[in-house]
Amino acid sequence: MNAKRKKHGFTLIELLVAMAIFSLMTVIAYAGISSVMLNDRTSLEHETALKRLQRTLVFIEKDLRQLSPRPRNDGYSALQQPLKADGGGDVLIEFSRAGNSNPTDLSRSSLQRVSYILEDEKLKRLSWNLVDHSDAEPLTMTLMDKVIEGKVSFFSDEGETLEAWTKETLPLGIEVKLSTERWGEIRRVLPIYY
């Protein structure tokens, strides 16, 4: 009678083999999920950096396309040129621009003074709602991080390419070069319409 008794259940060896197979599958699945999550994070960082670069270039292009020949009063009855860039230092370019929106219909000009500076490897845009500001605080916006170097060149009526602009008139075009850690050198050439 005892010789024909059936065994039900798993042996210890079968249980250990099943646990080993399950553990191996878990390790492989975790490595795959970890890799997907890392790729997703890298893609998100790259996408964010690209959006920031595009936003920066849109700001620069929009500002320079609305460049105004209006000079600036320095507060001491002396007129300064509408476009100022000395080719050195932290201030890349400073100019007056048109098209400053006024949705609340305040009594102010549609002109704005804008300056692009490079400070602590950050490209910043400073703007004043008053063109003739002497001590007004600017609205500061950090456009990009990790900008190693920035240069602005100007194309004159005589066909010259100048590193600094000291003329009272506006140039025919402006070239903006930004050297960044992530993207390398970025170059934009913009014609000036006035």
Provide an overview of this structure:
With 194 residues, this protein is an alpha+beta fold. The chain has a domain at 62-191: Pili subunits (Roll). It has one helix at 12-65; strands at 72-73, 79-80, 83-84, 91-97, 112-119, 122-128, 139-145, 147-155, 161-162, 173-180, 184-191. The strands form 3 sheets. The chain has a 5-stranded antiparallel sheet, with helices on one face. The chain is elongated. The chain starts with 11 loop residues before the first helix and ends with a strand. The mean pLDDT is 85.
Topology:
Blueprint: H1 12-65, E1 72-73, E2 79-80, E3 83-84, E4 91-97, E5 112-119, E6 122-128, E7 139-145, E8 147-155, E9 161-162, E10 173-180, E11 184-191
Antiparallel strand pairs: 1-2, 3-4, 4-5, 5-6, 6-7, 8-9, 8-10, 10-11
Low-confidence stretches: none
Strand order of the largest sheet: 3-4-5-6-7
Largest sheet descriptor: 5 strands, antiparallel
The count of DSSP E runs of length 2 or more, i.e. the number of strands, is 11
Give the percentage of residues in beta strands.
25-35%
CATH homologous superfamily assignment of the domain at 62-191: GSPII I/J protein-like
Judged by helices, strands and strand pairing, the structural class is: alpha+beta
Helix content: 25-40%
Report the CATH C-level class of the domain at 62-191. Alpha Beta
User: What would you say the CATH architecture of the domain at 62-191 is?
Assistant: Roll
